[in-house]
Design a protein that fits this description.
Blueprint: E1 3-7, E2 10-12, E3 18-25, E4 33-39, E5 46-51, E6 57-59, E7 67-72, E8 77-82, E9 91-99, E10 102-105, E11 109-113
Parallel strand pairs: 2-11
Antiparallel strand pairs: 1-3, 3-8, 4-5, 4-9, 5-6, 7-8, 9-10, 9-11
C-alpha cells in the first residue's frame, strides 16, 4: 500500500520559516520524481517545487530564492524548506510522487502565514 504522509505545517509569521516533510512508503522512492504542490480555496492546485530522481530541482517563480526542496532517499522522505514566508504562501501543501504514468498524492498539510 502506497502512503505519502506530509507533516510540518502550521501557523507561521510573515518572514518566518517552516520545514515540510513527506514520508513515503510502498514505493521505490529513489525512482520517483517528488513534487510539492499547494492549493487555496477556489484555485487550482499549483506546482511549488519538484526534485527528480537524480536531484535536479525546479521551482515556481513565486518561491525561487525562498524555498528549497531536498530529498533523502535513505529515509524515503522529501523536504520543503520554506524561508521568508509571505501571507500569499498560505495554502494546503500536497506531496506528489510520480514515476512514468504512476502518480500518488498525500493528504496535504495546512500552512498559514499570518501575524
Amino acid at each position: 500500500q502506497v502512503q505519502l504522509v506530509e507533516s510540518g505545517g502550521g501557523l507561521v509569521q510573515p518572514g518566518g520559516s517552516l520545514r515540510l516533510s513527506c514520508a513515503a512508503s510502498g514505493i521505490t522512492f529513489s525512482a520517483y520524481v517528488m513534487t510539492w504542490y499547494r492549493q487555496t480555496p477556489g484555485k487550482q492546485r499549483e506546482l511549488v517545487a519538484g526534485i527528480g530522481s537524480g536531484g535536479t530541482t525546479n521551482y515556481a517563480d513565486s518561491v525561487k530564492g525562498r524555498f528549497t526542496i531536498t530529498r533523502d532517499n535513505a529515509k524515503n522522505t522529501v523536504f520543503l524548506q520554506m524561508n521568508n514566508v509571505k501571507p500569499e504562501d498560505t495554502a494546503v501543501y500536497y506531496c506528489n510522487a510520480k514515476f512514468t504514468v504512476i502518480t500518488h498524492w498525500g493528504q496535504g498539510t495546512q500552512v498559514t502565514v499570518s501575524s
